[in-house]
Amino acid sequence: xxxxxxxxxxxxxxxxxxxxxxxxxxxxxxxxxxxxxxxxxxxxxxxxxxxxxxxxxxxxxxxxxxxxxxxxxxxxxxxxxxxxxxxxxxxxxxxxxxxxxxxxxxxxxxxxxxxxxxxxxxxxxxxxxxxxxxxxxxxxxxxxxxxxxxxxxxxxxxxxxxxxxxxxxxxxxxxxxxxxxxxxxxxxxxxxxxxxxxxxxxxxxxxxxxxxxxxxxxxxxxxxxxxxxxxxxxxxxxxxxxxxxxxxxxxxxxxxxxxxxxxxxxxxxxxxxxx
Amino acid sequence: xxxxxxxxxxxxxxxxxxxxxxxxxxxxxxxxxxxxxxxxxxxxxxxxxxxxxxxxxxxxxxxxxxxxxxxxxxxxxxxxxxxxxxxxxxxxxxxxxxxxxxxxxxxxxxxxxxxxxxxxxxxxxxxxxxxxxxxxxxxxxxxxxxxxxxxxxxxxxxxxxxxxxxxxxxxxxxxxxxxxxxxxxxxxxxxxxxxxxxxxxxxxxxxxxxxxxxxxxxxxxxxxxxxxxxxxxxxxxxxxxxxxxxxxxxxxxxxxxxxxxxxxxxxxxxx
Amino acid sequence: xxxxxxxxxxxxxxxxxxxxxxxxxxxxxxxxxxxxxxxxxxxxxxxxxxxxxxxxxxxxxxxxxxxxxxxxxxxxxxxxxxxxxxxxxxxxxxxxxxxxxxxxxxxxxxxxxxxxxxxxxxxxxxxxxxxxxxxxxxxxxxxxxxxxxxxxxxxxxxxxxxxxxxxxxxxxxxxxxxxxxxxxxxxxxxxxxxxxxxxxxxxxxxxxxxxxxxxxxxxxxxxxxxxxxxxxxxxxxxxxxxxxxxxxxxxxxxxxxxxxxxxxx
Lengths: 275, 271, 265
Description:
The complex is a heterotrimer.
Chain A: E1 2-10, E2 16-25, E3 30-34, H1 41-48, E4 56-61, E5 64-65, H2 73-78, E6 80-83, H3 95-100, H4 109-113, H5 119-131, H6 147-160, E7 165-169, H7 177-193, E8 198-201, H8 205-211, E9 214-219, E10 222-227, H9 234-241, H10 246-274
Parallel strand pairs in A: 3-8, 3-9, 6-7, 7-8
Antiparallel strand pairs in A: 1-2, 1-4, 4-5, 9-10
Helix pairs in contact in A: 5-6, 6-7
Chain B: E1 3-6, E2 9-12, H1 17-41, H2 47-51, H3 53-64, H4 76-104, H5 115-128, H6 131-142, H7 146-170, H8 174-182, H9 187-218, H10 229-238, H11 242-270
Antiparallel strand pairs in B: 1-2
Helix pairs in contact in B: 3-11, 4-5, 4-7, 4-9, 4-10, 5-7, 6-7, 7-9, 8-9, 9-11, 10-11
Chain C: H1 17-36, H2 42-60, H3 68-99, H4 107-122, H5 125-136, H6 140-164, H7 168-176, H8 181-212, H9 223-232, H10 236-264
Helix pairs in contact in C: 2-10, 3-6, 3-8, 3-9, 4-6, 5-6, 6-8, 7-8, 8-10, 9-10
């Protein structure tokens, strides 16, 4: 469980990125964080694992405070898995090394330097690669993979940490619509399987509504919407993003959803035919 | 405005008159400076020597030919020394250049107030001074021989490798560094997993490139007593034995061509 | 499902283990042989430490005044040599560079220009300087010729590579208007290579100054001769002053040329 209380961030340049943000994420809940560019979405998730240090406010992970002063940063970060926009894999390392880098917060420098990870870590890494369907690519260099495959490696790296929370920053930013859905589906499934809470920072509102349990809308550093996706109506979207013809967007999103449903239906029928 | 109105019609010019004049003035200044420099430079030139230069050249050529090929037998050992000066000097240079580069790169330097300017100064000082001058100093301090040559090559290489490497470090993708930091990796682990893989190709390319340059440089260090084939060159020149000099030049030429070929091959392999 | 509990990183460069270990072994043997062939005379180094200290003192407390006249003359020679040789080098490099670009030069011209570049690049400046001093006598004229010759090898090669990498469609479009060879060069090629040529010329100016400080050692004039003399006289205070001057001038010229490049590009 994640609890955020009055989180505030003011950058040195004077930008007031977050203004007292509070919310709680229950175990297994997948939260979509939406809002216009510059609303503070990226700052918010980076304040949680302290890639950015908040100016004020507290973050509790499973009832232990993780924002307090000079506490061990390494211990905090290794409990929180993060999946990045445009994958952020270390391109010149192999897929396996990228996945194992999820254990860096647990092993000593020399162990990681000689790539001698504990057998349990390696076993888990192979299981995760199997889960995301990349076992045969383990020894390939990360830059040899396609976009969707790279994001799967990113997911495996985050899970290799045995995280208590997942932070996901624009996971589908550079993927095509089909791959985007596959990636979102995979993330949501994994969170369900292990009862893992997650915050997904996402631009694509329609995609968010399709997959997440709850949506938080951020505007200029403040929470302006916090409810289930079905309650995200045109008025709420206007409150988050400003005036725009939302009906048109909704229409295309619904068409997409129908297409998706049809595709699923077709697949089921094909399999039924085989039986 | 490049388009002006003259006699009621628009006239197109490439530049505004002021800009055109400024460009002409700059060219004129360059010509004046060059001519002035030429005159100052040649105040002490004895033109009689220059006039008989073709004769001198013909004389030189006649004394250089045929090459004294038997001299080749006495060049193998100095050649081995020359290659060693370049190789060991490059390795020693790398050992010092790598930490200097990490201190000089703005994204990895631990202190931008003291250590970074210091590292940048080391790089500039090392780059400004040619390896032959380093050799001159070292021969005076530690005496003639291979060691002075190796250290001269190393001192010059620190600046070259350090500069190119720190520029490569500053150009790495910060997202990969952030991603590895987010797993809870320590500072050293972030270096090992996110920074080093990104700069490794640049690093190996730079090092081999410098090795190739160092082979050239080490052929002449012997002129000031720092070992290698230059020692033979110096003694042949002192005895005006130009037919031996021809052989030495031929050996240097072949060595340089081979080292260039090796360096090109190795660089291809590392990409 | 059972998965492996062991994993080894695949080797980075050489997949064949026998070959890999023999390469490692070969490198090790070479290093041992190379290092053992370096004879170190420890007593000489111990005696030299004192001189080393004096040199560092000279560097920290340099003496610009005692030999100010020699330093001044050397610096003037170096700087004038740098300017004239860079200008002359650029003037010759442009036609040679155009001639060495495969996409615009006819074959015989290409071969001649490439040969000239290869000769200029293969020999160290010092070796060229020795030959020019033998032909033209001691002094900065030999240095000027050396640096000009070295500049040709450097600039023409890079210019030729630039020309070979231009966007052909731009030159083709100019050719399609019915432009002659010179017009194609002027309108289709020059605008594409000009900014980089300027940057390279300024870079070569830096290099020529640094080289001008060296070729004096073999008699081709410049500050190198003064430095060599002061080292021979064990006059480390003057030597320190000269080195500081060289470093400062290189820093200034690098700063100046980077500012100029920013404005032009």
